[in-house]
Write a structure and sequence with these properties.
heterodimer, A: alpha/beta, Transcription Regulator spoIIAA, 5 strands, B: alpha+beta, Beta-Lactamase, Phosphatase 2c, domain 1
């Protein structure tokens, strides 16, 4: 599991995830993911297109990060999840707590609405 | 003259008693700090040194950390830096009569503390498996510099120190292992206490529940009970391992039972439990839960699910599964603002509701492939004529066969609710 963080703009952090977001993957990126997103306390978009698999621990990481960000008045948006990952997120109704869209443009547009 | 004889001649009776006293102390059980203090005090006395410090190899062997030093605090040194780092890197005794004349000497500690290091004797601490575990250093010999006799004395103490250090660390690892083991046992007991003691007898239905905890138990539970509002069907899963998720899921279940006992309907109970969990669970904790109420007379079940999915409804007449998603996010993740409507399932004869925790779907073989939903659906079809208990056993067998010996990483929990088929149905006759 790999993570790359970029600054999309002054108000938006971009994070790209690559690999399997299972228990072992979460162990590897838990701290840097939280640090990249929550400590900056600003909106964030996460590129999920490189995530080949997501397990319950991965969902837990996304939710806890989104929740922490929400407490700081900011929003986390996921985009580009492959079909398998999207299916798992749909089954668990994660879209009700974290906006999930198809493209980066849609993710940025979702943030602009807020 | 051999080494022990030389050593014997070097030692005064008092020194010998001091070393023997240290050796006796090192054999007794104690914690790391006490043991290191004992060694450094003895080293200062026997070697007539002004100071003594012990540095332990940490961070995977990349740095040395001062563990006993009177006034330098928790200093970290990379391997190779200064006399201590050089001693660790080269695993040799370094006796320096004039430190400021030695290019390896790092004077930064002196500058920080105001101490003036004149001479030093630095020794590697090597355990009985020839592994470097740290460095011992004595500074400023009273009235002179350290000589060959001091090196032998210090080496004797260092050898004792290294052995005792290895023993203390092993003991600490065992204690930590025992603590974790006890916590897991407690978590398992907590989980088991939340399971129904007996399966309810529901006219026209065959039900089966299974809870098979992983070695590092997770946070699963299930419930099947006849309550005033109908037959309560619950499957819950708190992410993580150990006592915390076990307590979270038991808390969820207790609140749910209480809400129904107070007369709540499905929606009220769901919202109440979710919002209570959101207010009380620590950050990052939540529970996925399916909560259903079955009316066995109308054969209608209504459910809400917080993050628990897929929910499989095997429809016997059609020979296929409907897969339902969760109706809401995992319980406790946040307060419910707008509750989506409950889903209704009508049970026809032979239909099966299959609730399986993610431990089933995510059970991976050695190559990392997962058991997945398709295999579960196929098995529900293949075993459609079997009882709920047999179906449960076949599911378990199938996942184990698939795993080919790969270890169980998560709890395996299932609830199967099967409406009994009408006797001598066409499907039954055909199969016979």
């Amino acid at each position: 599991m790999e993570l790359a963080s970029t600054e999309i703009s002054e108000k938006i952090t971009g994070v790209t995830l690559n690999g399997r977001l299972d228990a072992a993957g979460v162990d590897r990126i838990d701290l840097p993911f939280t640090a990249a997103i929550v400590t900056r306390a600003r909106n964030a978009i996460v590129d999920m297109s490189g995530v080949s698999f997501i397990a319950s621990m991965g969902i837990r990481l996304l939710i806890s990060t989104a929740r922490a960000l929400r407490l700081k008045g900011s929003t986390l948006v996921l985009f580009g999840a492959p079909e398998l990952v999207q299916g798992v997120l749909d089954d668990a109704a994660i879209d009700q707590i974290i906006p999930i869209v198809a493209t980066k443009e849609q993710a940025l547009a979702r943030l602009a609405e807020r | 003259m051999n080494a022990p004889d030389q050593l014997g001649q070097l030692l005064s009776r008092h020194d010998l008693e001091t070393i023997l006293s240290v050796t006796r102390s090192l054999a007794a059980p104690f914690d790391l700090a006490t043991m290191l203090t004992e060694v450094t005090t003895a080293a200062r006395r026997v070697l007539r040194a002004e100071r003594c410090s012990v540095w332990l190899l940490e961070d995977g062997g990349n740095e040395l950390v001062a563990r006993v030093a009177s006034d330098i605090g928790a200093v970290h040194l990379p391997l190779g830096k200064g006399l201590i780092g050089a001693c660790a890197r080269d695993r040799v005794v370094i006796n320096v009569p004039d430190c400021y004349a030695d290019p390896r000497f790092d004077a930064s500690t002196d500058r920080a503390t105001g101490f003036h290091t004149r001479c030093s004797l630095t020794l590697p601490l090597i355990d009985h498996q020839e592994a470097l575990i740290g460095v011992m250093q004595v500074l400023n010999k009273d009235g002179g510099v350290f000589d060959g006799g001091d090196e032998m004395l210090a080496a004797a103490l260092a050898a004792q120190c290294a052995i005792a250090l290895a023993r203390v660390r092993m003991t600490e690892a065992l204690i930590e292992g025992e603590r974790l083991k006890r916590e897991l046992e407690l978590a398992r007991l907590v989980q088991l206490s939340s399971l129904p003691a007996v399966m309810p007898l529901i006219p026209g239905y065959d039900v089966h529940g299974l809870f098979l905890p992983a070695e590092q138990t997770g946070g699963d539970t299930f419930d099947l009970a006849q309550i005033e509002q109908g037959v309560l069907i619950v499957l819950g899963d708190a992410a993580g391992h150990g006592i915390a998720p076990a307590l979270s899921v038991v808390q969820m279940q207790a609140m749910l039972r209480m809400a129904f006992r107070l007369g709540a309907d499905l929606e009220t109970a769901f919202r109440y439990v979710n919002d209570q969990l959101a207010a009380t669970l620590p950050d990052g904790r939540f529970v996925t839960a399916f909560i259903g109420l079955l009316d066995p007379e109308t054969h209608r079940m209504r459910f809400l699910s917080g993050g628990q999915g897929p929910i499989l409804h095997f429809r016997a007449a059609q020979g296929r599964c409907d897969a339902h998603k969760a109706t809401s996010f995992p319980m406790g993740a946040m307060q419910v603002e707008t509750l989506r409507p409950a889903v209704t399932i009508d049970f026809a004869p032979g239909d099966v509701l299959a609730l399986l925790s993610d431990g089933f779907y995510e059970y991976a073989d050695a190559g990392g492939a997962q058991f997945g939903r398709v295999r579960v659906e196929q098995l529900l079809f293949d075993q459609r004529l079997e009882s709920a208990a047999v179906l449960g056993t076949r599911l378990l067998d199938a996942v184990r066969t698939f795993a080919s010996g790969a270890p169980q990483q998560d709890d395996l929990t299932m609830v199967l609710v099967k409406r009994l088929a009408l006797s001598r149905s066409p499907a039954f006759s055909e199969a016979k």
